[in-house]
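Researcher: I'd like a candidate sequence for this fold, 399 residues long. If you have to choose between options at a position, lean toward the conservative one.
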């Protein structure tokens, strides 16, 4: 017990049987490619993007690559007309390779090396984020080419990741940055924030939007050029073991707060988790087993150092299912393959007696999972299998 990271408990184990066609898909994929696998369903990416787009009709959605930087995700969203949020030169390379027009991108890492700025500019991305004067000074050399967003900090203890501890400035500091930028001839496009990943309450956005509105009014009151843009960041929640508010309902108060802004203000968002979390199903197989202290230990070919790295770096409670449902259930542990003792995915869960080679399915495995996986102990990362890569909705309508 007592690991530093979160280990899934029995709440995460869903005895719900899988649909027959899904079982067949999983088994045929394992027969073809072996385990472990990540099944990435591009149709789910489309559905989530469309759902958020409908819920935030006047907001331009820039998908943040960080939770799942996979080329198929970029291609699928590009076809949907999405824009993109980049943070590193690696992410710049990925969207460039997939033919994303640079005008559809913004670079939002608040702390950059000069080379990071140059790489993004060479690609054609010219919107960047700053939250302090040291960073602002880096743009003196590029003042003719760039437009900046100033990132504000709004603390959020409840979120999976409180992204306002490490980044963001106060409204007062933002005004100082904007005045200094004016003196240095650097264009400030607007404000941004990130209320924290997996934010459960829309009020966090509402409060942040209101504060940004006040800063925008003070900018005008001080005789500085009016700001044209507000970027409300990511953080939109998904249902893991705990149900969250449907996205339409979640966005109602956010839209109301946005409606209070001057009509000239263009609004952006940077969703990551919401777009990709539900799109990936993980498939791991039992490599071996032992009975220890009255519990059955099953050693899987994927674990904390692999696709389940989110148990370490994120706070998600991935629902797990066994393909085998029949037999006597006993208290069990699911462990990862490495020789490290922290490599445990779930304990105190009731499982039927499993055989070596039996499959364990993980739901909601798209965000901050494979993205943070390692090759520790030379266990290869799970391969990704693409499903529904091409939009078949037209054909399906005909059929
Ligand atoms: C991680 C990140 C995002 C995505 O956040 P989600 O909570 O996954 O929606 C968006 N913007 C920035 C700047 C980030 O660092």
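Model: Candidate sequence:
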């Amino acid at each position: 017990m007592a690991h530093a990271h979160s280990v899934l408990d029995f709440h995460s184990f869903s005895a719900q049987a899988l649909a027959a066609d899904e079982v067949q898909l999983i088994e045929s994929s394992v027969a073809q490619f072996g385990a472990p696998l990540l099944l990435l369903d591009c149709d789910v990416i489309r559905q989530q993007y469309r759902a958020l787009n409908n819920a935030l009709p006047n907001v331009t959605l820039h998908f943040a690559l960080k939770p799942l930087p996979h080329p198929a995700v970029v291609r699928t969203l590009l076809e949907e007309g999405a824009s993109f949020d980049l943070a590193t030169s690696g992410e710049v390379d990925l969207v460039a390779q997939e033919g994303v027009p640079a005008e559809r991108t913004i670079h939002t890492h608040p702390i950059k090396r000069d080379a990071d700025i140059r790489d993004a500019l060479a690609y054609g991305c010219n919107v960047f984020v700053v939250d302090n004067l040291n960073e602002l000074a880096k743009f003196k050399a590029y003042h003719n080419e760039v437009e900046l967003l100033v990132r504000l900090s709004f603390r959020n203890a409840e979120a999976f990741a409180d992204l306002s501890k490490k980044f963001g400035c106060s409204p007062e500091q933002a005004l100082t940055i904007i005045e200094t930028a004016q003196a240095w001839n650097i264009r400030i496009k607007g404000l941004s924030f990130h209320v924290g990943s997996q934010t459960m309450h829309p009020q966090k956005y509402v409060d942040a939007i209101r504060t940004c509105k006040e800063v925008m009014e003070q900018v005008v009151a001080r005789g500085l050029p009016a700001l044209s843009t507000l970027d409300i960041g990511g953080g939109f929640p998904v249902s893991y073991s705990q149900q969250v508010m449907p996205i339409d309902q979640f966005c109602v108060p956010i839209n109301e707060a946005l409606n209070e802004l001057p009509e000239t203000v263009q609004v952006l968002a940077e969703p990551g988790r919401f777009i990709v979390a539900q799109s990936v199903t993980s498939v791991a197989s039992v490599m071996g087993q032992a009975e220890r202290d009255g519990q059955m230990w099953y050693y899987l070919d994927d674990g904390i150092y692999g696709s389940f790295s989110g148990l370490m770096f994120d706070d998600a409670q991935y629902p797990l299912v066994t393909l085998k449902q029949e037999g006597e259930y006993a208290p069990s542990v699911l462990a990862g393959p490495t020789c490290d003792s922290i490599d445990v995915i779930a304990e105190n869960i009731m499982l039927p007696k499993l055989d070596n080679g039996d499959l364990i399915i993980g739901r909601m495995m798209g965000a901050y999972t494979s993205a943070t996986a390692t090759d520790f102990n030379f266990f290869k990362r799970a391969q990704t299998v693409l499903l529904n890569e091409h939009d078949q909705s037209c054909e399906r309508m005909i059929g």
